[in-house]
């Protein structure tokens, strides 16, 4: 009975926290304000200057390319399961993913049912089948993106030096796809495969953002797409892009160093209540057992867990910065 009560309290807390996270995330992260700012900026029409027909024509081409890329991003905002699997660097099909998730849920359900009963087994089995696989996809995606960001500026430098040496852009991309490290090698190989089937090189580079949803990959696709349509000095544009990527890399490392103290404080604050509860339970189990044996204590425990969960989410949003 005690375990069933604790399981119900845990599931209720996770459910309430998940709903609160889904509704409060756009406001806590500033996504709503960012969307309004983008809409207001996109609504402004550029002011054309008389007597500069060539510059106006080039500006219109650049603006048209940026609008097309923005429209594609909005249309592809809903990420499918196949896209999430690809972004995680896996070659699974949707069917294989669902089979693995179902097997994982059945295994966890059987293990928990033999020790704690049917009701806790249902909760943990559901979490293992529908929560753990998607968390694993997110973890693999984040790790792959971090590895991509570490080596991407070097790849842009290689392409820039190849263009300055007189090589075509396609040959420079082949050089990166042949000699680069993973995941850079596979991503640029996908660009070459996409271009081989007849898609223009600018659109093929723009598709890099679909497989690697990072601002740096989007910058690269925009630079190549604009150069393919409007022309210009590609080596200079890629050189400036390389500088921007390295500056963003330095800024990210600086932010991590400056926020490390806040992260350590948040970890200590979050771990303090469970640690104190465990120590009290070890030293005086009868004193703290009222929290899960008495109805009032159970209610207080559920409320405390829910507040701690929401507090940890708020601290996480405060110490993680997007730029």
Give the low-confidence spans.
Answer: 41-52
SSE ordering = HHHHHHHHHHHHHHHH
Mean pLDDT: 77
Number of discrete helical segments: 16
Find the count of extended strands (DSSP E, 2+ residues). Answer: 0
- Rg (C-alpha, Å): 26 Å
Distance between the termini: 49 Å
Helix content: over 70%
Q: Shape, please?
A: elongated
Category from helices, strands and their pairing: mainly alpha
Strand proportion, as a percent range, falls in: under 5%
**Tell me about the biggest sheet?**
none
Molecular structure report:
The structure is a single chain. The radius of gyration is 26 Å and the shape is elongated. The protein is built from 16 helices and no strands. The two termini are 49 Å apart. The protein is mainly α and 323 residues long. Helices cover 84% and strands 0% of the residues.
Keywords, separated by commas or semicolons:
323 residues, mainly alpha, 84% helix
In summary, what is this structure?
By secondary structure, the protein is mostly helical.
